[in-house]
Write a structure and sequence with these properties.
By secondary structure, the protein is mainly α. The protein contains 6 helices and no strands. It has one domain: SMc04008-like (SMc04008-like fold, Orthogonal Bundle), CATH 1.10.3340. Helix 3 packs across helix 4. The chain starts with a helix and ends with a helix.
Length: 98
């Protein structure tokens, strides 16, 4: 592995550790602020694995990002989105498409 790849891998590990330490930050909040969330990261993870010929399921990719099965994450850390969050999310999505 070259140094650039090592740095990129370290950055991803640090991002995942940061997200894990901040479970109170909801995916919808991440989507509103940044346009991506943990689910996006898991889809990118799966796509990269596919590109490199690795057999990684959607569930395996989510577990790699969430650090636990997605169903467990949802049950323990993901409350229902508030009306305010949904309004902000929909406004952001609308702004991206106009």
């Amino acid at each position: 592995m070259d140094k650039k790849t090592e740095v990129e891998a370290a950055v991803l590990r640090r991002l995942l550790a940061h997200l894990d330490a901040n479970k109170d930050v909801q995916n919808i909040d991440l989507m509103i602020l940044s346009g991506f969330c943990r689910n996006c990261l898991s889809k990118w993870y799966k796509a990269a694995a596919d590109d490199h010929g690795l057999d990684v399921s959607d569930d395996d990719a989510r577990e790699a990002i969430y650090g636990m099965p997605y169903s467990e994450w949802k049950a323990n850390h993901q409350p229902k989105a508030t009306d305010e969050q949904l309004t902000a999310y929909n406004a952001r999505q609308h702004n991206l498409t106009t």
